[in-house]
Amino acid sequence: MLFLLVVFSSSCNRLSSAGKSLERALSHQIEHATELTDKVVACLEEESFEKLYNITSQEKSVLFYVFGNRRMVYWSQSWLSGQQVMLYNYDDWYYQHFDNAHCLCRWTHAGAYNILTVIPLKYDYAYENSQLHNSFVAPFRLSERYDISHNRQEGYPLFSLDGNYLFSLINSDDTGTSSKDNTSLAESFSYRRLSQHGGKPSKSYGNLWGSKVIIIVFVVLCVLLVGAGIYGLIRYRGLRNMRLRTKMLYVFIALQLLSFGYIFIISINYVRRHYEDRQQQELKAKTKYIQKFLQDTYYWNVALSSRNSSSLNTDLRDLSFTYETDIHVYDLNGDMLGTSSPALFDSGLHGRHISPKVMFANDPNIMQYEQIGDLRYLCAYTEFYNGNYVQIGYISVPLFISSAEVEDELNDYLTKLLPLYLVVMVLTVLIVYFMARGMTRPLDKLADMMRHFSINKRNNYLEYNNEDEIGELVARYNQMARKMEVAADRLARSEREGAWRTMARQIAHEINNPLTPMKLTIQQMQRTRGTEKFDEYFARSTRMLIEQIDNMARIASSFSSFAKMPDVVVGEVDVASKLFSVISLFRNNQNAVPVRYVGPEEGVVVVTDGEQISFVFNNLIKNALQAVEDVENGDIIVMLKQNKSQDDDSEWVEISVSDNGHGIDPAVREKIFMPNFTTKSNGMGLGLAISKNIVEGSGGSISFETSEKGTTFYVRLRKS
Questions:
Q1: Is a pLDDT exceeding 80 seen at residue 368?
Q2: Is residue 304 within 8 Å of residue 298, measured between CB atoms?
Q3: Fewest C-beta atoms under 10 Å: which of 43, 198, 277, 471?
């Protein structure tokens, strides 16, 4: 019992909420209808039915019916069906149930005319099916679980602004569709889908697996292309940062998808419009045949009325089976006289008045779409002439354009069009990809050659046989490479000549310095020969002469080593293995200075001269050991790191040799790599000059950082 009370309370709350919502919407709709009624009154006072039609024809949620001289002289819509309306109190809203709708009505007086303003609340067809739904009209939008009753004792009552009872909102009893016989309606041509049982849907070609598979494949391919495009734009942060090949591919595919989409939409619209145009032409032809037949049949009639057209329904029924279409006939006042589908009007699915556009827009020969429930159909109107071509009525010929038949046409078209689209799309993507790849390959080679460009290399040229823009760019590059080679040769020759001159002056100076004291010593020996001091002076002089001769021999040996340095021959070298071998030799130095190593012992391949790179490491570590000779707790650290250049994404290996000596004097730092410069008392100062030549000849660089706390030399070599 408690459960039933909870359910009942919840149902009442929902009904009250829906009633209040309907009350608010109804208030706005009444206000809107009142404003429109004032405009209608103004038109009638001016006797301007054309203006009246322009105001009310586009209004769907408020209907107007104008009466004069005891008959209806104007109506804004023709779908409302009902019995004879009775004149009620003026300016008071009241509830009225028509055959196919619940409505609110109000009478208004305008001179010789009486205006009935109707606000449809809820459709109320005799039965419901897939085409007919007894739902609330658009402005109210309540659920179909609610219904309208004129019993004040039940549901949620609604009142007018004056406090008059209008109707009650109740919960629907959900009795289902009516059991009314719809056989006659089912036998019609245009309204068959309105019948309770309806006709069998036509077999749509779109349900065939072949068409579905093609459409799915096409859609999936388009989605993948669009998804790849979005991913690329996010990854490269826009189209501007993409590689040229990818950019060309994106642009071509985007243009292709846009063109295909445009053609596809145009094609679909064309097929649909072509089908509808064909149906309209057929309907127009049928209308002319029917008009001619009825003209011959009622040749002598001067007017149409229920008295002289009693057999009209029978004639229209036979004629409808001949032309396979429904036919309606209206008199000159717009009232229906005969139809081939009387069940449509007897069941209250449609009103018995002609479309107001035919009557009040002065255009009796029109073709327009009309609607009953969810059924949308095409309807053609024309004049009904007698034998003397005097108009005695109107003819209406409706035609239901089957959406299933339109789908058949579209699916048949798509099964022919989409495979072609798929083939063209795939071929276009492949062709554009290979074309872009072929066009950008020389550019990639050019970029790679410029990235690895070295003055000492002799294979800096590209081959490209086409005479296009890329060919011109390659030609300019090759021309630049030739000029660089010539300039490099000249520069190298000039540098060599200058180096030899400098070296010759240095050697001459170094050799000339000990010659004078040696000469004087020998002359003194000659003067003291035969004296008592000769033996003592001879022993001292010969020792000094031997030292000077050894010094000159060392100078000659260093000069010979520098002169015999071979050209740098680059190749792939495991620099980690070379470096670790050199470090192993220096760890057992005479001063027991620790030489620590941080990095891999092998497996790091660079481009350099495998024979001469060891000299570089030997020289740097030897210099580091000499720098810490007079330093307490001397320490040397050698590190090997791999990193990537920020300019061109190339990979490099950096070897650093650090000591904790006193550093290099700022006054001599700029001369540290000069061939004839040294900070030591012995040596020629050629070690760092030779090392720089080897490293730069390999396409690398050598540099240093120094301070009072020590010095670090950096050697950068390009990875293979």
A1: yes
A2: yes
A3: 277
Return the higher-pLDDT residue of 52 and 503: 52
Per-residue pLDDT tens digits for 238-252: 666 767 777 777 777
List phi, psi (to 5°) of 602: -165, 170
CA-based radius of gyration for the chain: 53
Cα separation, 454 vs 718, in Å, equals: 12
Using alpha carbons, select from 555, 580, 603 the residue that is nearest to residue 719. 603
Name the band, by pLDDT with cuts 50, 70 and 90, for residue 391: very high
* pLDDT score recorded for residue 11: 63
Residue 606 one-letter amino acid: V
- Looking at the DSSP assignment, which residues form a beta bridge with residue 165? 159
**Residue written as tokens 């990235």?**
451
Give how far the C-alpha of residue 666 lies from the chain's centroid of Cα atoms, to the nearest Å: 60
User: Residue 166 — very low, low, confident or very high, per pLDDT cuts 50/70/90?
Assistant: very high
**Residue 353 DSSP symbol:** B
Phi/psi zone of residue 710: left (φ > 0), alpha (ψ -120 to 50 degrees), beta? left
Q: Give, to the nearest 10 degrees, the angle between helix 469-528 and helix 403-451.
A: 20
Topology classification of domain 208-407: Beta-Lactamase (3.30.450)
Instruction: Give the DSSP letter string of 360-420.
Output: HSS--S-EEEEEETTEEEEEEEEEEE-TTS-EEEEEEEEE---HHHHHHHHHHHHHHHHHH
Closest among 200, 195, 201, 147 to 372, alpha carbons compared? 195
Report whether 188 contacts 164 (CB < 8 A): no
pLDDT of residue 198: 43
Banded model confidence at residue 562, pLDDT cuts 50, 70, 90: low
Q: How far apart are alpha carbons 387 and 206 in whole angstroms?
A: 49
Alpha helices in 459-592 (DSSP H): 469-528, 534-563, 575-586
Gap between the Cα atoms of 83 and 88, Å rounded: 15
Domain residue limits, the chain? 2-180, 208-407, 469-562, 566-718
| CB of 78 closer than 8 Å to CB of 351 | yes
pTM over 0.85: no
Distances (CA, A) of 556 to 312, 508, 622, 675, 680: 136, 11, 21, 15, 18
Rounded distance, CA 474 to CA 479, Å?
9
| pLDDT value at 207 more than 70 | no
Class of domain 566-718: alpha beta
Residue 335 DSSP one-character state: B
Backbone φ and ψ for 603, nearest 5 degrees, come out as 90, 10
pLDDT value at residue 117: 95
- Cβ pair 614, 586 in contact under 8 A: no
Residue with tokens 């037949």: 293
Match 């035609």 to its residue by tokens: 399
